[in-house]
Amino acid sequence: MTHPSTQRTHAALGIALFFLIAVVGLFYVKWSPYYSRAFTAAQTHSIGQSILSGSGATPPAPSLHAALDYARAYGLAIWKALVLGLLLGSALDVLVPRHWVVRLLGGTGIGSVVTGGLLSLPGMMCTCCAAPVVTGLRQCRAAPGSTVAFWLGNTMLNPATLVFMGFVLGWHWVGLRLAMGLVMVVGLGWVLNRMSRAQNGDSGDNVDAAAAQALQAAAGDTEPDPRPVWLRWLRSLAGMSLRLLPEYIILVLLLGAARAWLFPAIDLSAVNTLAWILGLAVAGTLFVIPTAGEVPIVQAMLSLGMAAGPAAALLVTLPPISLPSLAMVAKAFRPVELAVLMAGVIVLGVAAGGVAIAMGF
Predict the structure, then answer these.
(1) What is the pLDDT of residue 221?
(2) Which of 306, 303, 346 is nearest to 322 (CA)?
(3) Contact assessment for residue 224 and residue 157, using Cβ atoms and an 8 Å cutoff
(4) What is the pLDDT of residues 332-348, one digit of tens each?
(5) Would you tell me how many other CB atoms lie within 10 Å of the CB of residue 208?
(6) What is the structure's pLDDT at 231?
């Protein structure tokens, strides 16, 4: 039997290694590139072309060529972050003690939701790249709302994206995005945690039932897995990659081909009507983009005459979730939880359109 002090040492080393990977990986993939990109945005008031249409005014007609072109452009933009997401998601399962995650994010109160949102701020990942980490958190029995707050916060509260947005679109758009992002992260996280408590029976202990069971099971473990840590990590990484990537790649190809159907308004003067706002809110919720990809998309659409209401709907709904990312986390949440999440994003996208119109954007 392993001595408790040895177990604590192994746990501390695992947590330290996880954070080392996270810090080094995020610095290389996110922090350093975005620092330089902020100066570009300030000087040129642009961070590149719209990934929807490139240098053209409209998305290409649906075809295999359009699908492959989009997949190539999207893949080049996100592959490093996706690899990092897979490494971190699998490392959670192997290096970080489960009871540690449960104590931090297993609660079903508002405090756990806020913690999840705060932990997302350094990540700055797109919704698909954060999905493996979300899967890892749920495998470690983090509560649904806390995990969703972490997931949504990566995109909606991304500090780099907010800075880019201010220099490219204007700081009034940053205020709108930040306000809606806070409501989305905290509000939808709280709703999902309340749903979890209702499903498992609200005992008043403010802890998710599944998380509590995992914590009790972890407390009863006296002997760690005897396999070498590198082998367990490799098996976890391979299993997660095989589960998540195939359908993700297929859905990205399909959405890339269907751009012209999802966004017919890119070459039109979309007006401030509920039909336009709702239609683009739904399209934005389904479509997949890289980190900060919504900024040049909205910039291009505004330059082509799109009204503020539909543009605001896209600004709020394009980043947080997508059809591919929902497929990646489908086994980590109940279908009703994902349905509520989708509905909440769409509703907040419509609300953002209304606010933009009311404030005269």
Answers:
(1) 44
(2) 346
(3) no
(4) 999 999 999 999 999 99
(5) 27
(6) 87
Tokens 């998540």, residue?
244
More confidently predicted of 94 and 55? 94
Distance CA 103, CA 234 (A): 26
Contact between 90 and 240 (Cβ < 8 Å): yes
pTM: 0.90
The greatest distance separating any two alpha carbons of the chain, rounded to the nearest whole angstrom, comes to 71
| For the chain, domain boundaries | 4-358
Within 8 A by CB and 6+ apart from 342, the residues are 285, 321, 326
State CA 42 to chain mean position distance: 25
Rounded CA separation 86/96 (Å): 15
111's CB contacts (< 8 A; 6+ apart) are none
Q: How far apart, in whole angstroms, are the C-alpha atoms of residue 343 and residue 337? A: 10
The one-letter code for the residue type at 288 is V
183 burial class (0-12, 13-18, 19+ CB within 10 angstroms)?
middle
